Amino acid sequence: MDTEKIKAEIQDIKKDVSIWYRSAAGVADLAGEIIDRYYPVDLWEMSDRELSAWMGDQLSILNDAIDPRPVPSEITSHRRLLGPIIVRGKRLIMKVLNLYTHSILERQRRFNTDCVALQLASYIRLRRVQSSLDQITRQLAEKRELESLQREKTEYDGELRS
């Protein structure tokens, strides 16, 4: 098989999965069954590593959902005969409503973009502060160890003189 064909098929599959993912109503829809329990994330019980990974994941999720505007290509129908007519009707309605909702949704998209950028900046700054704190902690431990060794040397020198 030609590599270009394979790449094209992979892109088609990615597009289909993306459409399926975005059209899902929630986790139950993605899982194919109702999940009867909600397990809230307890951020206070996470380790620094777990919290950092969770923050990165959440930023990715927020970044993927920045634009609230509907995409006409994502409108589909599972009906064989009436499906194309329904899809065309929905797209027409979307175009008409877009005249009224475009400016509102564009402002929302800009707000979402700014919020995600702010969160990302906070996350990066937090990582830098944590790195600086780790470095200072190491330097302090080295200094205390050096002071301890100097005290022991002074005590040892004092014992030799007496």
Give a brief outline of the structure:
The protein is an all-alpha fold and 162 residues long. It has 4 helices and no strands.
> What count of helical segments does DSSP give?
4
The end-to-end distance, rounded to whole angstroms, is 89 Å
- Radius of gyration (Å): 29 Å
Shape: elongated
Number of strands: 0
| Main sheet specs | none
Structure classification: mainly alpha
Low-confidence stretches: none
Order of helices and strands: HHHH
**For the residues shown, what is the average pLDDT?**
84
Percent range for helical residues?
A: over 70%
What count of structural domains?
2
Strand content: under 5%
SSE layout and pairing:
Blueprint: H1 3-23, H2 27-31, H3 48-64, H4 83-161
Structural description of this entry:
The chain is mostly helical and 162 residues long. It has two domains: 1-39, no CATH class; 40-161. 75% of the residues lie in helices and 0% in strands. The chain contains four helices and no strands.
Features:
mainly alpha, 162 residues, elongated, single chain
